[in-house]
TrEMBL record:
<dbReference type="InterPro" id="IPR001567">
    <property type="entry name" value="Pept_M3A_M3B_dom"/>
</dbReference>
<dbReference type="GO" id="GO:0004222">
    <property type="term" value="F:metalloendopeptidase activity"/>
</dbReference>
<keyword id="KW-0862">Zinc</keyword>
<dbReference type="Pfam" id="PF01432">
    <property type="entry name" value="Peptidase_M3"/>
</dbReference>
<dbReference type="GO" id="GO:0006518">
    <property type="term" value="P:peptide metabolic process"/>
</dbReference>
<dbReference type="GO" id="GO:0006508">
    <property type="term" value="P:proteolysis"/>
</dbReference>
<keyword id="KW-0645">Protease</keyword>
<comment type="similarity">
    <text>Belongs to the peptidase M3 family.</text>
</comment>
<dbReference type="InterPro" id="IPR024077">
    <property type="entry name" value="Neurolysin/TOP_dom2"/>
</dbReference>
<dbReference type="InterPro" id="IPR045090">
    <property type="entry name" value="Pept_M3A_M3B"/>
</dbReference>
<feature type="domain" description="Peptidase M3A/M3B catalytic">
    <location>
        <begin position="1"/>
        <end position="132"/>
    </location>
</feature>
<keyword id="KW-0378">Hydrolase</keyword>
<keyword id="KW-0482">Metalloprotease</keyword>
<protein>
    <recommendedName>
        <fullName>Peptidase M3A/M3B catalytic domain-containing protein</fullName>
    </recommendedName>
</protein>
<keyword id="KW-0479">Metal-binding</keyword>
<dbReference type="GO" id="GO:0046872">
    <property type="term" value="F:metal ion binding"/>
</dbReference>
Amino acid sequence: MPSNLFEYYAWDYRLLKRFARHHSTGEIIPEKLVNSLQGARNMFAATEMQRQVFYALIDQMIFGEQPEPARDMSQLVYELKREHTSWNHVDGTHWHIRFSHLLNYGAGYYSYIYAKCFASTIWQSICEEDQREVFQTWRS
């Protein structure tokens, strides 16, 4: 969850203006540019959420309380994608064998979605307003 929370700082102009400068002119990053990037950042939020839920579903089907019996993983991924997403499957890609989180999380990938929700709540209720106070609290 900390990485999700710290992403908010990476998009906060109050922090960016302290170090984000043009490499040759030294000009501080324009606030208008940061605002524009922030707007684009959430452009495909629904698609990203669908992708994360899809990954969590695969994880639960493989490692959950009632895992799938031994079967062709590529076929399972294909079926889940067809049933639960809005994008097309590309035959022969086998992307899931390179998605290390499916092995590292062990039926816990869904917690990534919770972590994003918790980070958002913490940011909005504690961190967004007075960052100096938050930093001092975290340092002690």
